[in-house]
Amino acid sequence: MTRFSPARPRLVVGITGASAPHLGIHLLRCLRDLGTVETHLVISQAAHRTIELETTMCPSEVAALADVVHRRGDIAASIASGSFPTLGMAVAPCSMRTLAGIAHGYGDDLLTRAADVCLKERRPLVLVARETPLSLVHLRNMVAVTEAGATVLPPMPAFYQRPSSVEDVLAHLSGKVLDQFGIEHDVYPRWHGPVPPRPGITVQPVEGAVS
Questions:
Q1: Does a structural domain hold residue 145?
Q2: Helix (H) or strand (E) holding 46
């Protein structure tokens, strides 16, 4: 049952068992606070474990952040059909197992099936792929999903906004995901170019800097 009007655009969010479930949790919180999008959540079996191991939350608390929660084994769920309109899907974090399944059309559960729906319907699919270092298999799978129409968005922090906390880093990453779907937000400060020095102040070049 939804808590808000179904007239709002819908976004599917998947959380897999890769390290850093914080990525998906923060994204859900941003979407809840914005209130402009109806969220449909799928949590993989492995993600239940990483949520318990890496956060202070339990899976049911994470689920409570979404408007609609689907069981991972429910292939009859609304998001398993292309006739159910959505903005697309974000998988955050996206494990290499899930990436491989999506890359090769192996929809063995609702999460990978929902991702496959986005590809076949030409809807945005954003995969926040979380692994390091990357093997050749990982890289080839990333090429495959990109060629199929997905966007691989590794959770690489930016420092131009000078983050002072993990929250700042997560906010930037969530904002980058929202940007992919054209969802308006003010989650992170955008770059508008360097601030020019005040008159009378001389900026010394950094020693060893390469132009």
A1: yes
A2: helix 45-54
